[in-house]
Amino acid sequence: MQTSQHVLFERSEMKDRHLVRKKIREHIADKAKLPILIFPEGTCINNTSVMMFKKGSFEVGGTIHPVAIKYDPRFGDAFWNSTKYSVMTYVFNVMTSWAIVCNVWYLPPMVKEEEEDAVHFANRVKAVIAARGGMSVLPWDGGLKRKKVKESFKEEQQKKYCQIV
Length: 165
Known about the structure:
Elements: H1 14-29, E1 49-50, E2 67-72, H2 87-95, E3 101-106, H3 118-133, E4 136-137, H4 151-164
Parallel strand pairs: 1-4
Antiparallel strand pairs: 2-3
């Protein structure tokens, strides 16, 4: 990882967030360095949706080169359901799959518009990726895979549903 200039951080540590933002800005400013590959969802789900992007990647400036990635599950499943399978079972399933096939679409570069904040920019990029990959857009993050849903989020969804009914 040291030879390929990874930027490692602990997401829950506020000091690390500021340090990472600084490192990314410095990296972007140095035109001799390769672009940074960032997965702003922070986690994967079942190949049907694009979850909420973490806004930090979209706060630092620079040009975003979106990439839509979608696995074709016909020959092997690339996803690990950690609540259902151990890591050893997952590795065995991947290693014994006939193939892991993945469609990759390189989309046109995008830049943050003047009136746009990081969240709106992230949502705009997310929508373009989801549209190209034929996936739906989800307004929540991958933390819901392992955490209980907040009561305020439930109430908000209930209000929306009541308005429809």
